[in-house]
Amino acid sequence: MKRLILSILLCTFISGIKAQDIDALFAAMPDMYIPQLESAWRKDLIDLYNSGKEAQLKNTMNGVSSLKKLTSDYLLLQTTERSTVEMKLLPLVNKTNIICVVTTVDGPVSDSRIAFYTTDWQPLDTEDLLTPVSPEWFIREDADKDSEAYRNAVALLDMNLIKYTLSPDNLTLTETYMTPLYLNKSDREKVTPFLKTIPKVYTWEKSHFK
Questions:
Q1: String of b and e for 93-119 (b: at least 16 CB within 10 Å)?
Q2: What is the mean pLDDT of residues 194-204?
Q3: Closest by CA position to 138, among listed 182, 183, 192, 188
Q4: How distant, in Å, are the alpha carbons of 50, 81, 173, 202 from that of 165?
Q5: pLDDT tens digits, residue range 105-161?
Q6: CA 75 vs CA 10, 70, 199: distances in Å
């Protein structure tokens, strides 16, 4: 972890990048990360949002993209009808930041990918910055794991669909277990009694989510 932080600080020093708000970083991000919106269109969305107008434009997929929320360190973009992008600046040391990007697709159940970048959009190793809990974390501690009902229920959870959500107000990341919503009603009723009703919440602590 120390090596990772030193690497980020060195990259920032060499590139000479100063602390920036999320809007400038969003405008400067490589097009490959949001192929539906090239840089000029992202700048237009920012200008529309800051002027108090509806921040909505047609994208390259003949759909509509909307900038839903923008603060100095947080952004929420409705990329398409079925996908969103969240961005959050996470502080390290000496006023250095990294960028957390959560991309969520609803198809039909929400499922997310999470990535981290330096402020000049160099990818960082996600494993150094977040260790997700295993699917077993979402099982109730008091579940009777020796029962046939439990074994049958767990067998239905044969995939791992996770929705990540960044907070616009603080340095937290919420992980919600979405797999049960993928099941039909009958199977969902079988697994629900064995699952926790709360999501997992991580807090950013200087250099990683914990």
A1: eeebbbbbbbbbeeeeebbbebebbbb
A2: 97
A3: 192
A4: 23, 17, 6, 10
A5: 998 899 999 999 999 999 999 999 999 999 999 999 999 999 999 999 999 999 999
A6: 26, 5, 22
Average pLDDT score over residue span 13-25 = 68
Across 44-77, b (16+ Cβ under 10 Å) vs e yields ebbebbeeeeebebebeeeeebbbeebeebbbbb
Average pLDDT of the segment spanning 99-105: 98
How far lies 150's CA from each of 142, 177, 180, in Å?
11, 18, 14
Residue listed under structure tokens 């020093």 = 13
pLDDT of residue 17: 45
CB atoms within 10 A of CB 204: 22
Rounded to a whole number of angstroms, the CA Rg of the chain reads: 19
Give the residue from 175, 173, 194 showing the smallest Cα distance to 183. Answer: 194
Q: How far apart are CA 105 and CA 81, in angstroms?
A: 9
Tokens for 19, please give them: 């602390």
